[in-house]
Amino acid sequence: MKVSIPTTKLPCGESVPVFGLGTWMMGDHKASFADEVAALQLGLDLGVTLIDTAEMYADAELVVGEAVKGRSDDLFIVSKVLPSNASRAGTIAACERSLKRLGTDHIDLYLLHWRGGVRLAETVAAFEELKAAGKIRHWGVSNFDTSDMEELSGLPSGANCQANQVLYNLSRRGIEFDLLPWSRQRSMPVMAYSPIEQGALADNRAVAAVAARHDATPAQIALAWVMRAGGVIAIPKAVKPDHVRQNVAALDITLTTEDLAELDRAFAPPARKRPLETI
To answer: What is the CA radius of gyration of the chain?
Structure first.
């Protein structure tokens, strides 16, 4: 049975789901390829329409390409260009390679994976060229801190950035001090990667205590917490079918004021600016 997934809006006004399927570390081993494809297809069968991947993730784009055969037009596919490829010509060439691996004629949201040595203006110009050619529908960034976003927004066409994908979970709350408010003021979604801290939050006692009240798993509580307010898109990765189903079921969990206060005591919100965390 398909679930109904809440949405948030990009700055351009398009609605996108607040929950998607992550693929980090997929495609690393040929022996896992079929299981990874099956996991993504299960997520799609359950009603998930957003998939996040990147050219850096080994053969993850090939996993996605196999999983979405015949239904990519109904999905919102996100991929990323490496900073080492982010020159004007390099970005365009990288996008073409990603399109080939994905087996699609366009990418819905194309991100600069992190800042590198190429001038931002050059990468933005490449993104705009790809958008004009219909190769991508939207573009954004990843691992950008507030100062990076401010610099980007001052560039020609920089205001066309539609999202910023960053590390965000209960144990990594630094963006709440400035980056998350900055993004919300501009109606720009934050995509939260590693929302369960690569599984570490599934073993936390405080999270488990909240989970027990909801007859849920700690991982589900961690996901529900990330999606507790508008403007954040969670993209957990799962390969085991049970984990895929559990992640999707987290959408049904509504955390109470008591839950949130308890989690704040265990994972204090930031009281000052922190450097942007990455993994």
So the answer is: 18
